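Bit of a strange request maybe. I'm writing a small parser for structure token strings and I need a real example to test against, not something I typed by hand. Could someone generate the tokens for this chain?
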Amino acid sequence: MTGKERYRKLCANESSIPIYSRDWWLDCVCGENEWDVILYCSNPDSEAIDAAFPFYAPLKNIITMPAHTQTMGIWFNPVSENPKYSENLYRKQLICEFFIEHLPAHSFFLQQFHFSFTDWLPFYWNGFQQTTRYNYIFPDIKNTNLLYERLGGDVKRNIAKAQKKYGIEIQRNISIDLFMEHYCLTFKQKGMKTYQPGILKKIIEVCLSRKQGDFWGAYDKQNRLHTAVFIAWQNDCAYYIAAGNNPQLKKSGAHAYTLWKAIVDLSEEVQMFDFSGSMLSGVEHFFREFGTVQLPYYVISKGKMNIVKKILLKIKTLIKSK
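Reply from user aminoacidic:
Good idea to test on real output. This should exercise your parser:
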């Protein structure tokens, strides 16, 4: 059995692996043949996997992040945790050193690590650089009354406006094509090229087929769709993946109401809600106003990608997105 086959088996049975690092997600965003994984096993004679490092290698000597994927990085098996903090920290540093040593040859490396990864020192010691970004989460969405009390004034006002002034109702029977139409409208209104619609559509199709995702859409009394969001989930966590808005109806407050209704509905299914974060000021403000917890995560990089590689990668990604 290859390392990748072992990792697929691990993903099928291990609940703590984030959705963005699961084999089926990587198949969607990378292509089945363009991602791989390095495994760390403290006991070679055992089938137990202590840590895993999946990575996307679309071109020779290039390791980078696929589209629509917030984080990847190293997963540490919680079963292997050492109760002594200092010893556990040292154990993880040694595992990181192992992974760095066993990465395929590369002239460029860029990886966004999950917020649970907190010690990048082994990468620093090996000449890598780090930039901090921020994510926003609800660690616990079970008590929605408490969550509502913590909502910021802007979010509460938008929810009330959507309900009372515009008569918005939230529905979940939205077609993929209708959602993608509004997703593209969001970029068009800003004069921007739509970000990888083909890959997003594939993610949505797979999530729906696995019963691990759904739409929430805001309709007014004229049956106009103001906004729609797509949420994916697994085990105890839901992830805000994408949204689409009608630019002509953006002042209705429907986006905040739609997202809030999705969180309330999902509170019966999962424990945590991951907003997926953003470094854009307006988006950050929107997420923060929900009363979320801010968590830093690391973008670790090394080397540079030359212009030829950048062009080839762009072409390859465009082909995937069709």
